[in-house]
Write a structure and sequence with these properties.
This protein is mainly alpha-helical and about 350 residues long. The protein has one domain. The protein contains 13 helices and 2 strands. The longest helix has about 30 residues.
């Protein structure tokens, strides 16, 4: 059915797209969770929770979909990454679980101490999750030590290198900016004014951090430079990301918050696409022994498996998209507090 397609490249693009969708969709509610720590006003916190309440769990479906697709299409990558990053992934899993439990448990009791415990769980879980995602992203871009059996040959603390810590910070700032735009769109009055201030603080911080990360990328990651020289696509994607960054602040100043949220999301996708195109055809770059890298060819499932999975994906992904769009349409508009809810 898909004889004319290069299934390995198709699945590479599809998986990058799925992870980008997760970063976009869950990025704003994780960012809202981080901003939640900055606002101790009870009414504001309830509004924030109510703003993400109908959508946060649906947003995480994209992470499950991306993980499942990675397992099916490139099982060696799944095995290597999940075993090598085991400690970090367990921390990430606990952060996401505690965050989810906090959202649901916070309003079960009226006591202030009860709510404060779950407030810390929600905000802290959001912050830790975003930071760990950023650290993992930095290590994938930089490369990790693999042996001849394609197994992780490093240590947990080796993953906490300066570049990955900086990309962890970048992920936090980017998520905060994305979340502040979402709050601009969904809130009114005093909280919206706070979101406007948070947006500008995070935007200019993002510009500085992103500039440092990009400079270090071209100085420290030679494969990114090589791919940029071989194909203009890498440079085009980066240029698009920078244009979208400028478009984000311009649309916020024009009070077009929905468009600003779209621009911010597309910028996140372009940044992920930039690093993915710089890694191509590698999925897990072995550093320093690049001969042990996992590529879209030596880590892939059989052609038949890729073909069958692509058929399933072409049926299932539109359904997920329709469901997601329906939920956002039903819960469109500004958030209003009432006696029920968070």
């Amino acid at each position: 059915m898909f004889e004319s397609l290069n299934l390995n490249i198709t699945w590479f693009v599809l998986i990058v797209g799925l992870f980008a969708m997760y970063a976009i969709m869950d990025g704003f509610d994780l960012g809202t969770g981080i901003l939640y720590l900055l606002d101790r006003n009870e009414e504001d916190r309830r509004i924030m929770l109510k703003a993400i309440g109908p959508v946060w769990d649906g947003n995480e479906v994209w992470l499950l979909t991306a993980g499942g697709a990675l397992f099916a299409a490139f099982p060696k990558v799944y095995a290597t990454v999940f075993s090598g990053f085991y400690t970090a992934f367990m921390m990430l899993l606990l952060a996401l679980i505690f965050r989810a439990v906090s959202i649901e448990f916070r309003n079960k009791q009226p006591m202030l101490w009860w709510r404060r415990i779950w407030d810390i769980g929600f905000g802290g879980g959001s912050l830790l999750a975003v930071f760990l995602f950023g650290v993992a992203f930095g290590n994938m871009a930089r490369g990790i030590p693999l042996d001849a059996q394609y197994e992780f040959a490093g240590t947990f603390f080796g993953l906490l290198n300066p570049f990955s810590l900086l990309t962890g910070l970048l992920a936090v700032v980017l998520s905060v900016m994305h979340g502040s735009i979402f709050l601009l769109k969904k809130t009114e009055d005093l909280l919206q004014k706070k979101a406007y201030k948070w947006f500008h603080q995070s935007f200019f911080t993002l510009v500085g951090v992103l500039a440092v990360v990009l400079v270090l990328t071209f100085l420290m990651l030679p494969h990114m430079v090589i791919n940029a020289e071989k194909t203009p696509l890498t440079v085009i994607i980066l240029f698009a990301a920078l244009l979208l960054l400028v478009g984000t602040i311009k649309t916020v100043h024009l009070f077009k918050y929905r468009r600003a949220l779209v621009f911010s999301g597309l910028m996140i996708a372009c940044l992920i696409g930039f690093y993915a195109s710089g890694l191509f055809p590698n999925l897990v770059l072995s550093n320093p022994a690049q001969a042990y890298s996992l590529t879209i060819y030596n880590a892939a499932s059989s052609a038949k498996t890729l073909s069958i999975m692509l058929t399933i994906a072409l049926i299932g992904l539109p359904l997920v998209g329709i469901y997601t769009g329906f939920v956002y349409w039903v819960f469109r508009g500004k958030v209003k507090l009432d006696s029920t809810g968070y």
